[in-house]
Automatic annotation (TrEMBL), chain A:
Record's GO cellular component terms: cytoplasm
Protein name: D-alanyl carrier protein
Phylogenetic classification of the source organism: Bacteria, Bacillati, Bacillota, Bacilli, Lactobacillales
Residues where O-(pantetheine 4'-phosphoryl)serine is found: S35
GO biological process annotation, one example: cell wall organization
Domain of life of the organism encoding this protein: Bacteria
Keywords assigned: Cell wall biogenesis/degradation, Cytoplasm, Phosphopantetheine, Phosphoprotein
Native source organism of the sequence: Levilactobacillus parabrevis ATCC 53295
UniProtKB/TrEMBL annotation, chain B:
Membrane disposition: Multi-pass membrane protein
Main function: O-acyltransferase that catalyzes D-alanylation of both teichoic acid and lipoteichoic acid (LTA). D-alanylation of LTA plays an important role in modulating the properties of the cell wall in Gram-positive bacteria, influencing the net charge of the cell wall. Catalyzes D-alanylation from DltC carrier protein.
Transmembrane residue ranges: 12-30, 86-104, 110-128, 140-158, 191-212, 243-265, 285-305, 339-356, 376-396
Keywords annotated in UniProt: Acyltransferase, Cell membrane, Membrane, Transferase, Transmembrane, Transmembrane helix
The species this protein was found in: Levilactobacillus parabrevis ATCC 53295
E.C. code: 2.3.1.-
Domain of life assignment: Bacteria
Protein's UniProt keywords contain Cell membrane: yes
Protein name: Teichoic acid D-alanyltransferase
Length: 77, 403
């Protein structure tokens, strides 16, 4: 399974929203994501993709849209 | 010798203008003189911590040396090792001076600690953050001189905003091009003038003129249910206005001065009175503090709880961590019943807020959402916040317990 599909799966599970139709929407401004969901995302990335992201790597402005998250994960994988 | 409270009076601003002029000309021509910047910093630090406040100055120097030894020592250690217990020990050591400063008045009948100085909290936040990012491996090239500049950056030393090591370093090591710097200069000067209005006109009116009168009236109107009276309610709004204009004013001075020095220190306030809920309020009020708590306490605790599966449900994890997070914030303000109650109040408010947001998300069809509900949400949030500031103000302590 490729990174994009996995990340979208994780986001869908986490937020209960299908985000694949709005890849550049800000997930925090719309209230879909918050700090809690961010941590859950980091933990899922670790367990499902083996990508280790320390909390201080999580600069919110670099992780606030589905596209940015995918790009970030691809750069860290 | 003269001593000044930072941004306290016109003389301070006059000195600031004179000292910053050569720096501005340098930056306009693409040059940053580290030597000159350091001399300016030392000059203003001496103005703040010298003269009759020399004991604070000594405390500051000892404190800084102590934190340098800890952060530098840990950075050297972290290159080849990564022990959890040692990291926790280092964090405890880094916050030990602040803990002593905060606990001393509570156990010594209000006596201030000898090792305290203006800004000790804000410096501790910066040092702890440097250490945590070193542990995470996101901060790899710790440099003592940069750390000193970061800690002792005079515009923000006394009360923030709380910058981040890596963000500060990136600004400090580079020179903005002329267009960018002119933009910063324009913003910086505007911030200073808005700050004048906030701090010297509005905060002066609410805090110095109106508040003492309302306090006196509230003290005379005791006797009713919980000693609540109209003047007390007036005091609540007046105190809230003073708190906002005073601190937002100071923050504008600190950010404005930073911008003039070519450093884009993050903003501390973003229209907090238009927040539709408490969660959003903390994204707009004392932003650098609440983000510090979010990134270095809340998210880390949640991460730890989830990794070790302490609680079954994620919502329980979030709720427990909200309460812990806000209680720590309360204790940080000082060990008094009203600061701790204030923290607890906001913790509980965040839990209720989150529950409501989840309910609203699930029942999107049945919960009305229109202009009226939005205005009501803003009104409710602002009033809850003002009520929390009434607790925070400590006036209830006087009204209830002062004979």
């Amino acid at each position: 399974m490729d990174i994009k599909a996995t990340v979208l799966d994780i986001l869908n599970d986490l937020t209960g929203n299908d985000v694949s139709g709005a890849m550049d929407d800000n997930l925090f401004d719309s209230g879909i994501m918050d700090s809690m969901a961010s941590v859950q995302l980091l933990l899922s990335l670790q367990s499902e993709l083996g990508v280790n992201v320390p909390v201080s790597e999580f600069e919110r402005s670099e992780w606030d849209t589905p596209n940015k998250i995918i790009a970030k994960v691809e750069s860290l994988a | 010798m003269l001593t000044f409270e930072p941004y306290g009076n016109p003389t301070y601003f006059a000195l600031l203008g004179v000292a910053l002029l050569p720096l501005m000309i340098g930056l306009l021509y693409g040059k940053r003189s580290r030597l000159y910047e350091t001399l300016v910093s030392i000059f203003f630090l001496v103005l703040t911590f010298g003269g009759s406040k020399w004991t604070q100055g000594v405390a500051l120097i000892i404190y800084i040396l102590y934190e340098v030894v800890l952060t530098w020592g840990y950075a050297v250690y972290r290159r080849n090792h990564n022990s959890g217990p040692l990291f926790y020990l280092m964090v405890i050591l880094a916050i030990a001076p602040l803990t002593i400063v905060k606990v001393t008045p509570a156990v010594e009948n209000g006596q201030a600690s000898l090792i305290g100085f203006l800004g000790v909290s804000y410096l501790t936040f910066r040092a702890v953050q440097t250490m945590m990012e070193t542990r995470d491996g996101t901060l790899k090239n710790y440099n003592i001189m940069t750390f000193l500049q970061f800690m002792l950056f005079f515009p923000t030393i006394s009360s923030g905003p709380i910058d981040r090591y890596r963000r500060f370093e990136a600004d400090y090591r580079s020179v903005p091009d002329r267009d960018k710097y002119l933009g910063m200069l324009q913003k910086g000067i505007r911030y200073l003038f808005v700050g004048f209005m906030y701090k010297f006109i509005l905060a002066y009116y609410f805090g110095t003129i109106l508040m003492p009168k309302l306090q006196l009236m509230a003290m005379h109107s005791r006797g009713g249910f919980l000693d609540i009276s109209w003047p007390l309610i007036g005091y609540m709004y007046c105190y809230s206005a003073d708190l906002f204009f005073d601190f937002a004013g100071y923050s504008l001075f600190a950010v404005g001065t930073s911008y003039i020095m070519g450093i884009a220190t993050p903003m501390n306030f973003n229209q907090p009175w238009r927040s539709p809920n408490i969660k959003d309020f903390w994204n707009r009020w004392h932003i650098t503090l609440s983000f510090w708590f979010r990134d270095f306490i809340y998210m880390r605790l949640v991460f730890w709880f989830m990794k070790h599966r302490v609680f079954k449900k994620p919502t329980t994890t979030a709720n427990v961590t909200y309460i812990i997070n806000m209680l720590i914030m309360g204790f940080w303000h000082g060990v008094t019943w009203y600061y701790i109650t204030y923290g607890l109040f906001h913790g509980v408010a965040l839990v209720i807020n989150d529950t409501w947001l989840r309910y609203k998300k699930k029942h999107r069809q049945s919960v009305p959402h229109n202009k009226f509900t939005q205005i009501f949400a803003i009104f409710l949030t602002a009033n809850l916040v003002c009520f929390s500031f009434l607790i925070f103000s400590g006036i209830l302590d006087k009204i209830w317990f002062l004979k």
